Amino acid sequence: MSGALTRRSIDHVVLERGSVAHSWKTERWDSLRLLTPNSQTRLPGATYDGDEPDGFMAVADVIAFVERYAETVDAPVLGDTTVTSVRAAGDGYDILTGQGRWHARAVVLAGGACNVPTVPDYATALPSTIESVTPDRYKNPDQLADGGVLVVGASATGLQLAEEIHRSGRPVTVSVGEHVRMPRVYRDEDIFTWMARVGLLDERWDEVDDVVRARNVPSPQLIGTPERRSLDLDALTSIGVQLRGRLGTIRDGVAMFSGGLRNQCALADLKLNRLLDTIDERAGEAGYGEPDGPERCQPTTVGDPPLTLDLASGEIRTIVWATGFRADHSWLDVPVVDHKGRVRHDGGIVSDAPGMYLLGATFLRRRKSSFIHGAGDDAEDLAAHLAAHLATR
Fold first, then answer.
1. What is the pLDDT of residue 98?
2. Confidence (pTM)
């Protein structure tokens, strides 16, 4: 957004609570790699120029990429500046920070969608012998107590951490709710390459039937590795990870799971095949030809796991809450947030707050909005609207 505003000669400042790439520096685990291939790690004026386009950036590389980009666009970043309040005032907004007050005719909320881990209320019922860990505080298995680990959540984060922790020698159980199964490679290409090639990632928020639903779809079960391997529930069970259904509550020290694991897996398999059908159809229409052979995943193999787990028995020593994140808008003193804490907006244009914009949310304007390469198009669109807004004031 800073680059887009600079190209339009719009005076602005970027207020940052820490330093550039702060979250990447402080809230990521050691082995994390991007889910998208290096070829899609790009922003306007900055593309990947290495020799591994099909590889996946590690955290240190992402930090370096973002820091270089800030220098490239000469972003006017004011670091170590925590915003404590944004409120409507006169022809714009007053912004209070730990470093003083600002007034701006327009404000872009670009703090991201993953500020606060979502941990269910029943976590307070955990026995005192069990430690709780959220992904933003997890670094590696060495920080965990010896003994069993329950990972709650089966999207990308949950599966990656479950595999890593299990390989450290700790028994791991994964609680599985709604999830999105996806192969790393399909028809000899990365799945994200196909999704971009056939236009799925460019689908707009105003073109889908249910954008609210689309914005709440779990992240796909993927991992970025040099060998481009897939990671799904079958891969976990093949190395000895145990599965349970969705964790519903904890009562008297006993974890209680849903009996719908088979249904959740069957639904994920159904949606996966629908996605691959769409890719095949659009690829054929675009002249890429028919698939050479069957590359479809086999249906997920799942049994009938127990519905309870005694957390007071000592079998489980740690719970990892891979149950997602939410944005933190506690500092936003403008009535634009709904009852779930989400900013009301139409493609990033904040409702009932002229001159206020949202950037960096899931499916903001396109299906790719939450990925690095989706930020550029969204920023250009919103910067154009912002410039028109300023021109009419």
1. 93
2. 0.95
